[in-house]
Amino acid sequence: MSTKRDLEKYREIHKTLHEKFLTLLARVIEKGYVNIDPRVEKRLWVPETFIHGAVRVPMDNGKKEDYDCYRAQYHGENHQGGFRVNKSVCPGEIKGLSFGMEIKNNLMDLILTILGREIRIGGGKGGLCISPKEVSPRELQFACRGVMHVLAPYIGSKKDGLAPDEGSNGTIMHYFLDELSKITGYLDPAGFTGKLLEDGGCLGRDTATSMGAFYFMQYMLEELGITEKLPCFIHGCGNAAIHWGRKMSKLGYPILGFTDTSGWVANPYGVDVEDVIAYKQKYKTLAGYSHGKYTVFSDKYGKAGKIASEARILYPAAFEDTVDAWVADHSKHVIIVGEAANSPLTEKAQAIFASRGVYVGSDSVVSGGGVLVSLRAERQANIDGRPRTAEEVDELIQTQMRIAFNNIWKFYTERKTETLRDAGMAFAVQRIADRMMVEEDLDAPYGKVIERGIYDVELGKFVE
């Protein structure tokens, strides 16, 4: 369990996450990589709509507790993005991640077709400030169902699609879907993605993020003319980490190790990927893992960290800011970084890699497979009434990741941006700006904050 000090530090990181994204925005504007109207720039600094409320939950001990919840939506009439359930959730985190989704959704060129009309999808992100590990299943379900009463007027297939994120999953999407149907009187499966298959979920959604990252990495290696099976190190041991590790390992790339919150596992000749995964799934931790003569477990300053420093490919698939300046400074052999998590590099780590000419594929495109499949294969399938096959999903990921990679690489080489991150940000910002100039009244009010009050789950009504 996290200490109070750990939690305060984690939330402080998230408070500044929005500033971190806006620093990248300011950078591409100041560098002259984009040419946008000042009114557009002003709109990019804040979400179009920010919703805040709270749910009052009857606890198992007979008391009631209030939990804040949020949803941020960037520009457009329809949105897509995750909804996380974690006690670190705060306004700065949600605003920052919604801006990140705005960039990602435009890089992936997401379009939803409803009644023959093509609708471009803006970025959305939300969260409930509660720890799933520290409440009972009953308490968590009450809290999640209460969230729908706070957000109901602003979500659904024609407004905003919610997807699993940190701390949430298909079961929580089921609570959302079911509760919203009770509020509205009809079932709207296209308002949620990452659902259970019986709720209209999509084959391949659970591996979509890792598959998108896998194809992006293959396109990068191909572009650089690298055929050698380079050693890789993976930060994280969750869904996006293990599936990517499996794919790369099967192609012959040595996976030097994985990390989780307990420490680092590494082997100079490559770990047994399947054995690591089985251990993690059984014990919920990497702590104490041992397999073979050369495999070690330590913190990043120990033997495992030394082995990890030999990696040529770095794949951060954990949490925000997990790759810090120390890790970057000691990753002296790395030539490619593929970010599969939200903003996993600190600003200092970014600067270190940039100074060495490391190719860093930012999370805005590397992790784009998840939202791509959420929208184009799940929400669209729910609207059309035709589920997509696993083969169709894989083809979609390959094709769209190729297009996104080509767009960024072309921008990078033709505009001579300093980094691939700059190229991805600039390409998306210019695309957003061009569309805003055509589609929106730039002098209209913008940046609405909506306070919904407190919904009491037991009483079934708003009380404040």
General description of the model:
This protein has 16 helices and 16 strands. It is α/β, with parallel strands linked by helices and 464 residues long. The chain folds into two domains: 4-201 and 429-462, Leucine Dehydrogenase, chain A, domain 1 (Rossmann fold); 208-368, Rossmann fold. The strands form three sheets. It has a seven-stranded mixed beta sheet. It has a seven-stranded mixed beta sheet with strand order 11-10-9-8-12-13-14, sandwiched between helices. It has a two-stranded antiparallel sheet with strand order 4-5. The relative contact order is 0.15.
Write the layout of secondary structure elements.
Elements: H1 4-15, H2 17-30, H3 38-44, E1 49-58, E2 64-73, E3 79-85, H4 91-107, E4 111-114, E5 117-120, E6 122-128, H5 137-151, E7 160-164, H6 170-184, H7 208-224, E8 232-235, H8 239-250, E9 255-260, E10 263-266, H9 273-283, E11 296-298, H10 303-308, E12 313-316, H11 325-330, E13 336-338, H12 347-355, E14 359-361, H13 363-366, H14 368-384, H15 390-415, H16 420-439, E15 448-456, E16 461-462
Parallel strand pairs: 1-15, 3-6, 3-7, 8-9, 8-12, 12-13, 13-14
Antiparallel strand pairs: 1-2, 2-6, 4-5, 9-10, 10-11, 15-16
Helix pairs in contact: 1-4, 2-4, 2-16, 4-16, 5-6, 7-8, 7-14, 7-15, 14-15, 15-16
